[in-house]
Amino acid sequence: MLCIGFIFLFQFFQEPKVEGDQSVENFYEKVGSEKTINYLIIGDSIGRGSGASEPNKRWFQIWENKMKDTYDVDFKRHMVVQSGSTAFEGLNKMNATPHLGSIDLTFIVFGENDRKYMTEKQFAQFYEGLLRQVKKDYPDTEIYTLTESPLDNELFIQKITDISAHYLAKNIDLRPVFNESTYSAFELTTDLVHPNDRGYQLYAEAIFQETQNLMNQDTQIAVLAAPLHDDVNIALQQSSAYTHASHPYKGIYWYSEDAGETIKFSFSGTFLGMKVKSHPAGGMLDIYIDGQPVRTLSTWWPLEKERYLYISSGLEKGIHQVTFTVSKQKSIFNESGKAEIFLSTIITEGTN
After folding, report:
1. Which of 141, 158, 168, 227 gets the highest tally of CB atoms within 10 A of its CB?
2. Residue 213 neighbours by CB distance under 10 Å
């Protein structure tokens, strides 16, 4: 069945500015003059402070309080975060977020989830693409990249380090902070991944110490340098224009709860993702590109949430076919008795 669906083009790229407006006070100057700091966190569950026992125990709240006590500054915080997310999802969520005005500082917090779905080369494309997007949208922002404490893949860690250095972003590695602590990983985390209150206290202290060190120097904020890796000026395109399906869309979603039902799309480009509604009864999809199995992805989530899920990248340039088949498998977390799929669009490469 051929269906003429809808296509959304996301083209948020402006002409790059190597540096921000020199007449605008940067983050460090604003702190020094006791002005309100607008800052942004783009990240995963650690980025949003999951694991803290209460809101004021999250790393960014502790950091804010330390900064207020020391420098008498106020903060306005913006959050583009999602538990379980990758840099690919972060880039998509950024593009779906209305412009936030002036941003003085941006935290980028990814890596621990990315390593489960992609290689370090694939990760680098979206991590660098996200950092570039931040500097294009907010040319006057400083950037702090956090290397998360549980991340143990040295190839991913090196990519974060190299990309940060290339753009003069300030990388704060939380691994040695944990490793050099007198506490064990069991005493610093809720599940050996997410820091607990004590762990986030260490995060905040390390970030505060680095901020203080940078305040005492003639620090240049992050810049939009020439690309370090290929294909990092990323435009995103969403499409619901399928080529064949067991049945048509119902509203804005292709819905199914029957194993074996399929929907197929044709797309052009080197990467692929999908936008879905994740929820407590979410089912799983077996995904094939050009007839070859790629991965099985779950749409289960404890809360109903729109998600942008990474599928594949590094594909040959040109036309590809993707098939989504409702899987017989079911998430071990799904206790609903159902396995429902709500597929909104595929996410592919657009044009700048």
Report:
1. 141
2. 11
Write out the DSSP string of 215-259: HTTTPPPP---S-SSSS-S--EEEE--EEEESS--BTTBEEE-ST
pLDDT in tens, 31-41: 999 899 999 99
Q: Coil, strand, or helix at residue 86?
A: coil
* Gap between the Cα atoms of 263 and 85, Å rounded: 25
Asked whether residue 9 carries a pLDDT value surpassing 60, the answer given is no
How many other CB atoms are there within 10 angstroms of residue 288's CB atom?
Answer: 16
The values of phi and psi at residue 36, to 5°, are: -65, 135
- pLDDT range class, residue 18, cuts 50, 70, 90: low
In 82-160 the beta strands, taken as DSSP E runs, fall at 105-109, 142-147
**CB crowding 74-92: b at 16 or more within 10 Å, else e:** ebeeebbbbbbbbbbbbbb
Q: How confident is the model at residue 351 (pLDDT cuts 50, 70, 90)?
A: confident
| pTM higher than 0.85 | yes
Which CATH number is 15-215's, of 1.10.10.60, 3.40.50.1110, 1.10.3980.10, 1.10.357.10? 3.40.50.1110
Say whether pLDDT at 270 is over 90. yes
CATH 2.60.120.260 fits 236-349, yes or no: yes
Q: Report the pLDDT value the prediction gives residue 19, as an integer from 0 to 100.
A: 56
Contacts of 91 (CB under 8 A, 6+ apart): 126, 129, 130, 133, 234, 236
| Mean pLDDT calculated for residue range 147-173 | 98
- Residues whose CB falls within 8 Å of the CB of residue 316, separated by 6 or more in sequence, listed in order: 270
Tokens for 212? 């203080």
- Cβ–Cβ under 8 Å, residues 342 and 275: no
Spans of all domains in the chain: 15-215, 236-349
Q: What is the CA radius of gyration of the chain?
A: 21
